[in-house]
Amino acid sequence: MGHKKQHFVPRSYLDAWCDPDTPKNQEPYVWVFPKKGGPARNRAPKKLFRETDMYTIKLASGHRDLRLEHGLADLESLFAHIARNLLPNHVDISIETKVKLCAFTAAMQARTPKQRSHIQSQWQSILDGMEAMETEMRALAPEKRQEIAKATLKPGGSGPSMDIEEVRKLSETPIQHTLVQIIETQVPILATMDLAVFEVDDPHAFITSDAPCVWFDPEAHNRPFPSNSPGLSWPTIEVTLPVSPRQLLMFN
Q1: Which are the contacts of 1, defined by CB distance < 8 A and separation ≥ 6?
Q2: Which residue of 43, 80, 212, 227 lies most exposed, with the fewest beta carbons within 10 A?
Q3: Rounded to an integer, what distance in angstroms lies between the CA atom of residue 81 and that of residue 59?
Q4: What is the rounded distance in angstroms from the CA atom of residue 215 to the CA atom of residue 234?
Q5: What is the model's pTM?
Q6: Which H or E element spans position 214?
Q7: Does residue 130 or residue 80 have the better pLDDT?
Q8: Is 44:4 a contact under the CB 8 Å cutoff?
């Protein structure tokens, strides 16, 4: 089976951090530093930040749907061209190029295990509530269940709804069910924001990580709960993504 090991931080993206002093007889590597401290180790980008079938949609027939994996690969190729040929040469960023950078940035925020855990916890909380309600309903007498159903199900409904199986799928495989929607939602917003490319002379200025895209809002702590977290709707939001050891994108 092909495409089993799927990267949540692309190999082509990590290439910019490969050690230029890698011996000629070795595969290019980056230096990896543990989050909790300790000595660094060198690893080839192809061996880093990957999981088995992270984006694979598993069909009922047993087949593996790789549309997300292939779509991300196409997006990575577009970004690699921009990062290697346009940004280092200070080429003016056209609207088309900006949209591509927006799409890559949105994907880098949405495709990581960190984001998956965040979405998973939200849907798991909803699923727990639905399962508890289901258990309570099953314990009621049939006539009582019918009475509750008549009182809650109104003709025409009040809008889109989801059943417990749909919520369970979102909880179990959040990336497969939300990645495209998240990217499609974020790109138009990022496209309206100012984009700056920071560049420094230090060849080791910017590092990257297993969650390269960072949302930071310096005013978030001044807002009351639940509005005290970063979001693209707030005018003070800053979105950063290092693209090489010398360059960093900032949307604001």
Answers
A1: 64
A2: 227
A3: 33
A4: 11
A5: 0.87
A6: strand 214-216
A7: 80
A8: no
